[in-house]
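User: Structure please.
Assistant: Input sequence and predicted structure:
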Amino acid sequence: MKNELISHPDKLLITHLSEVANIAVKTIEGKSFNFSLNINNENIDITAIIPNLMYLAAAFHDLGKATSFFQAYINNPEKEHDKRKSHALISAIFVYFITEKYFEKIEIPPVLKQLLSVFVFSAVKRHHGKLNNLSSEILIDNEWQDLLVEQVKSIDSIKIKNLINKQLSNFDFKVDWFDFIDYIENKEYDLIFDDFSFDVLQDNYKDLKNNTQISLFYLHQLIYSTLLYSDKNDVILKDKVSFKQSNVIGKINEFRERNNFNNPKSEINKLKNDAFFESSKHLDKIFQKEKHIYSITLPTGLGKTITAFMLADKLRKLADFQDSKIIINIPFTSIIDQNFEVYADILSTYNTDILLKHHHLAEPVYKTNENTADYYESKFLIETWQSDIVVTTFVQLLETLLSCDKTKLMKFAHLANSVILLDEIQTVPYEHWETIRETFKILGEKFNIYFILISATQPLIFTPNKDIVELVPDYKKYFRFFNRTKLYINNQKISFDDFKLNLSEYIVKNPSKDILVIVNTKNAARETFEYICNEIDTENIETYFLTTLITPFERKKIIKKIKKLSVSQKVIISTQLVEAGVDISVDTVFRQIAPLDSIIQAAGRANRYAEKPNIAEIFIYDIEDFRQVSNLIYGSDLLLKTSNVLKGFEIVEEKDYIMLIEKYFLEVRKQSDQTSSKLFKAIKNLDFSDIDFKLIENRKSESIFVQLNESAKNIWEKYVDIYSKKDLKPWERKEEFSLIKSEFYDFVINVPIPWDDDSISFDSEKEYNFYVSYLDNPSQNYKYSQTDFTQNKGYISLKNITIIL
């Protein structure tokens, strides 16, 4: 390769550019896009030119590596080099230059030509960096304008002309390299970008309709995502990606046969079958290709997981997509692990090309029948969702659709043609409803994505029968059938002391009943737990404390014990942690006032399968001592709406829950419609650096590793060993840690730092970024016993400061 232009050690620049371009075009052409845009009340279809734009961006995305400065760097990286070795900006300007040439023969409105040319410029400029607002991206300072001249003059004109001619061999236009040198020397791009800023961004673009602006945002993300993916793919995988579509419905039928689901004995199992088969027939009847948003609304315990899985596969078959994934999104990692086992059982496989689990603690190994990929291949394949069925979190999906995080955006192009399930959709805050509603509609229309929103408490994000189609015919009949639980609403405020007294008296009077207590703060849960353990003889009672103040290891162990049949009474003191998707069933629930959907979800943890001898009682209390903290957690507006909906009711039977839910979400939708979203505005304005979706607001916290047992002690020692190896490079350390990460975090809790402090309370200093409670020398801040669960209170601040959330 001597005297040849190279892009990477041992790789020719022309080879890299050609391979990335081929991968990019293949990624785009394998999908069914529909980019018909409304420009000045005229529909302009640009779908056919997107592969060409993508080719031009990818075929020249690293052209700047042809400078003598980059070639000196890549051949001798240990030597000191200045910023002239940078290649992204000059590559981006060249791509803009040739895209303008390409558009000379394309008949579309000038505003679209200008926007699309800047889109490919932006994608190339930031394929190694972070996106800026488009209005800032086109600003090039004087220093860089001078450096660009030096860079372009340093490129061997014969070599670069040969490269350009080869890359453009299938196009009917030519580019003269010396014209581009003049373009750089005369700073023509600067004048063009100035005109773009004033004429397009500040004038023409603002006149476009909302739908067109959102469509253009996602077109930019498609170009950017495809370039990121293709560039990484060429380096890591060399385009070795393939997986087949599974026959999910066939596998579900086998699973149902194995488990004798087709011969139901109980009424609830007959109802499950009705919901399964009726929704399947209904989809056949109502499916229209242009309808992209659906819902599944069923009460707790009616098999939504399997029914939704079947409908997703049926939907992609009806849509006739050859390259279509099913992407299952679940709000919490604890539920993902639980549901993933169900999908693995149905599909009879853990092969990652068929079934992939992706969240921050999932095993980072990609396995097929043929082989197991190495760490870097696995990481890339998992993070870009190279599988037929993907089980992941809301965070992974929504931060792909509604943020500019490069690592998440790499998978964006692969979402086209997918069927996306969002389970427990009610957990999405109403402040994001407008953004989700408007973006999902565009993603459905332009990317041929089908969305299915699943819940027992379906929120009004979309308008029924207009924006969204219900897949369960006459779904309300399933709610009317049930008489498993009953709400008892205490409309008068009660003190925390009286609440605990009422609870303790109920426990004593009802020794045969398992009881779940859900309060709104961890501190309130611990105080309630301590009160019960101190005031009641718990010798014959299994008493459990279940919050995120105890480790995931303990929480899993407790949930297993709760689900296990026992002659002893069980009393569980918890927070909203147990509400969505945790498959437990008790006789009675005590629930502090919360948003109505949380209350109904809490009721779903009682008499779940109608297996209890009596109707489960769900007691709702407004505890005045914690009202202010509850407002901080849920928002005073949602609590007020809940109180208003429940006003006048003392007892509500389960058959009437649907009436309360609809009434409640009607009020929440009104609130949502009056809420202005900065995120939605940033998306429409192409303000990329302001697009930073967060499902949960981050709060500063510190981590504690708890050596509960010998396994925890051993895993900590492995962690220390990894981080003590001075010869390991950062990415090598990260790779080694990834192999123990999942088990490691089973013994970690994250404790929010109090608002009025800069650290948490702990009785020793941090070691390797963690506070540590040792097996042989336990911290006074962490209470744990392997045998006596009344002692298991988890983290306790010695400063006695309330921990919220």
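Residues 801-805 have pLDDT under 50 and may be disordered.
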